[in-house]
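Escalation from tier 1.

The customer reports that the assembly of two entities below gives different structure tokens on two consecutive runs. Tier 1 could not reproduce it. I'm attaching the input and our single run for tier 2 to review.
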Amino acid sequence: NAGVTQTPKFQVLKTGQSMTLQCAQDMNHEYMSWYRQDPGMGLRLIHYSVGAGITDQGEVPNGYNVSRSTTEDFPLRLLSAAPSQTSVYFCASSYQGTDTQYFGPGTRLTVL
Amino acid sequence: KNEVEQSPQNLTAQEGEFITINCSYSVGISALHWLQQHPGGGIVSLFMLSSGKKKHGRLIATINIQEKHSSLHITASHPRDSAVYICAGPLYGGSQGNLIFGKGTKLSVKP
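Tier 1 run:
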């Protein structure tokens, strides 16, 4: 199993550009989540999904969109990038009812 | 609003020392996660526990749900244990899949 994969690993954007961060898992997990990690802030939940076709907002959803058309994929879209979105983004997945969260390797995003 | 607090923020230890990291949360939750973030940035799940104690190798996690407190212990610490240790509880009271995190404890173990 590849586990949770994220692409790209690094990205630099200009203010106002849009992009999609990709996340995929091959473990047939129902739960998938997107977090951002900023210095001194800890990880914060952006959006999550409890299954294909079902998504919901987390703590810091503004400026981000998600969709979940398949169990495997959970892309995160930045609609109009802002410098405040400079961060490291982690995708995670887990089985319903299991005790392990699996994290992707992260995407480091810089918005100029 | 759920709050998850960790202490200490930074911890330096000598190889072989017994280490304790604490985690407290402000509202009732059903379970708590401990995670490890390596210097390279990768995050690994160590434990999820809802009562009592769990042990994996030299790592031991305990939780007291009534007191809203959990501890992570490392016995016979080693430089390879150097990492950031993060506790997390379920946001909105759910059991998993959407978590709120402490800010982490940065552990440095010197040889």
